[in-house]
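Model it.
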Amino acid sequence: MIYYIFRHGETHSTKYNVPYDDKTVVSSNILPESKQVIKRLANYLKNKNTDYYVSSPVKRCRQTVEVIKEEIDISFVFDKRLTEFYNEPLDQMVDRLKDFLRETKEKGFKSVAVCSHGEPVSALVNLLTKGSFSEADLHQFPPTGILLEVSDKNTKFIDFNEKV
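Modeled.
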């Protein structure tokens, strides 16, 4: 099984390294300049044989997948288990992401594209590659514009920030 995991498009918070708070965690918009990066990522995904496209329902992820949909005409399912909850206990996040991964495996998908947030991305990748996730792994996520292709406990990083 292959997972194509990526963060939402760049926001003010991600660009300027400003932490989200209880309001901006749900209200932040992607920046207009991030759309070209998302389009390049979309065109990469277009050439993959993906069974399931799924995203966090948070605004910045919705905006990101809308750009992808406009570019390659596919639709994402929204799953709140992929959401980044402000001040959520770590074990709760891990449990819901384990449940998400279990469900995608049970449904027999061969490849899944996932749009989420930094900490859930880190958790998903660590759960898929190491089988575990700890607080030490929490901030080990890539910047926006990076696609993580995870298969057979290996991770390939593909950067769409630079024009090809």
